[in-house]
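Section 4.2 – Deliverable D4.2 (structural model, holo form)

The reporting period included a commitment to supply a predicted holo structure for the target in complex with S-adenosylmethionine. Inputs used:
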Amino acid sequence: MYSRFKLLRKYCQYNFNASNGKGHGVHSPFVFDFITKVLQDKKIYPAYKKIEKLREQMLQDDREVEVADMGAGSSVNKSSTRKIKAIARTSLKNKKFGQLLFRIVQYYKPATIIELGTSLGITACYLAAGNPDGEVYTFEGAKNVASIAINNFATCRYENIDLVVGNFDNTLRETLVNIFKLDLAFIDGNHRKIPTLDYFELLLKKSNNESIFIFDDIHWSSEMEEVWKEIKQHPAVTLTVDLFFVGLVFFSSQFKAKQHFTIRY
Ligand SMILES: C[S@@+](CC[C@H](N)C(=O)[O-])C[C@H]1O[C@@H](n2cnc3c(N)ncnc32)[C@H](O)[C@@H]1O
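Output (structure tokens):
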């Protein structure tokens, strides 16, 4: 993981180089549509209030849970006890990006969604709310954290979420056997290079022309920057959008030449 200072410097560079979609810089009608209809959609949807209320509850929750984190960012396979409120403060996608994921799902209507890294289930709720007719498969390795997420799904009455407990290294392959076609994947756990690229290859097997993959924290560490670089170069990838904290990947054959955009958000 990069130091705060390095991350801030990278963020400033991104802000300086990124396009805001106006004027020069974005010649793709698809990306222009994404910017104006999804990224810049300022409407307040009812799901926002419900899910943010749940986040607030998690931020006040003093209970402790045992966490066996299998991803980068903590020691490998180390079990530790953490307060729920500390997990809510440090491990979840914030409101801005949770709501962006909601709008992406609402706009493109993916039917089958995978999230790697459930944690307390806040982002899974946003993904589920975006398309009530879709199905969200969310994966979590820490079983005590997963059980909090299950309660949260019940509290919010999202019935279109399946939580798969266990290490992605085993559960992803097993679950994908029963998934015919994958429309959207949000990869937000285990920020290491080799596992992330392995998950990408597995997910790719079930992708289609319209699939969207979203990678979290693409500039978080040198390993994640290498992941992002390799994904951009992958022959199946036709278009990418770098929003700094997440990177969007598209595979549509409508984009004749590979295109990469860095958009301010
Ligand atoms: C950043 S959190 C996910 C946050 C969630 N997507 C949100 O925004 O609400 C990442 C989660 O992935 C889980 N995780 C990391 N590596 C894993 C692995 N190899 N198998 C299963 N779970 C893993 C961690 O336990 C952690 O809860």
